[in-house]
Write a structure and sequence with these properties.
Blueprint: H1 2-30, E1 49-52, E2 55-62, E3 69-73, E4 95-99, H2 117-131, E5 137-142, H3 144-155, E6 160-166, H4 173-183, H5 190-203, H6 213-227, H7 250-256, H8 261-272, E7 278-283, H9 291-298, E8 304-309, H10 316-319, H11 321-333
Parallel strand pairs: 3-4, 3-5, 5-6, 6-7, 7-8
Antiparallel strand pairs: 1-2, 2-4
Helix pairs in contact: 2-3, 3-8, 5-6
């Protein structure tokens, strides 16, 4: 009797294993195809680039270098500045600098240990020294980039004339924990799992242009599925999250998840240690880290104001440049 039961169990397990193997093979071949991943500056010398602290960065500038300098900081970590390029319209009266942070976008990939808040701050500091060594700059940061800008305010307040912060996610370790709990809501559900599974198998067919390409493709697809979750207010109701990007940096994104409380608290310290003017912007559609969250962030600063961008989710410059950029211009003129 026992032997018979064991035999039945083994046959059942074998059958289940066979079904799983067949399913995996079917999905693998069903998703076969060519999935391109953009080259970084290391493989494409035609890309505009600079070297900062020994790392090659994708970067470009717009405007007259003699005008006031604006440094644009993209979100992520791991994103790129493509969706922020609408800010180049500010180059009529400013010199606007865009760069993909280390390990992100089209910039050089670096090890996880080189992706910490202090290394990002050192990189930003070197960027400022390169483009505006004698005059304070304006920092224009989106999401994670707004958090990075805020942390920098406390390390070199004399180098920053003003800051424009588009929906920074969190300033403290406590806020970070709350953000993660809330974020898990948008990393679930049939649509999310279906998209994540699809890009997972698609990534198995990515063969280049470098050893990080497949991992970057996978992480980029998962992040897009998260941002485009039907309940995620990163986009307005009935709209899709469609902000443009070149390439996501997987290691940069994963390293951020291991950031300790001490590094996160540098953000709050930066806010409280800065007395210059700050503009906080929130998307009118975003009830997660939109108006309510940014009103809380106002209390960290000595001299800050908040404006709401109508008909915009988290990525305001992409979603609604017609209302976002005039608010920024008015702040710059004040």
């Amino acid at each position: 009797m026992l032997m018979r039961m064991s035999k039945i169990i083994l046959i059942t397990l074998g059958g289940m294993t066979g079904v799983v193997v067949v399913t995996v093979l079917c999905l693998f071949f069903a998703t076969s195809g060519q999935y391109t991943v953009a080259k970084t500056v290391l493989d494409d010398p035609s890309l505009p680039q600079i070297e900062i602290n020994g790392v090659r960065l994708h970067a470009e500038t717009y405007g007259d270098p003699s005008n006031p300098v604006i440094i644009v900081l993209h979100g992520g970590p791991g994103g790129d500045y493509r969706s922020q390029l609408g800010a180049k319209s500010l180059a009529d009266t400013n010199f606007v600098v865009f760069y993909d942070q280390r390990g992100a976008g089209l910039s050089e990939r670096v090890p996880a240990e080189a992706l910490t808040v202090p290394t990002y701050l050192a990189e930003l500091d070197a960027i400022i020294d390169r483009y505006s060594p004698e005059r304070p700059v304006t920092l224009l940061g989106h999401s994670w980039g707004a958090m990075l800008a805020t942390a920098y305010l406390g390390t070199a307040p004399d180098k920053v004339a003003r800051a424009v912060l588009l929906e920074p996610g969190f300033f403290t370790g406590e806020e970070a924990e709350e953000w993660m709990v809330h974020a898990k809501r948008y990393m679930s559900g049939l649509a999310f799992y279906k998209q994540a599974l699809r890009v997972g198998f698609q990534s198995l067919h990515v063969s280049g242009p470098d050893k990080s390409a497949a991992r970057d493709y996978l992480m980029g697809g998962v992040v897009h599925a998260f941002a485009n979750h039907p309940e995620n207010p990163y986009h307005c109701v009935f709209d899709e999250f469609d902000a443009a990007s070149w390439r996501f940096g997987a290691v940069a994104s994963q390293a951020a998840g291991k950031t300790g409380a001490a590094e996160i608290d540098l953000i709050a310290l930066g806010a409280t240690g800065y007395s210059g003017p700050v503009l906080l912007l929130a998307g009118g559609c975003n009830d997660w880290i939109g108006e309510d969250t940014q009103r809380k962030h106002l209390s960290f600063f000595e001299n800050a104001e908040l404006r709401i961008v109508p008909n915009a989710g988290h990525d305001m410059i992409w979603d609604n440049p017609d209302d976002t950029l005039p608010l920024i211009r008015a702040f710059l003129r004040a």
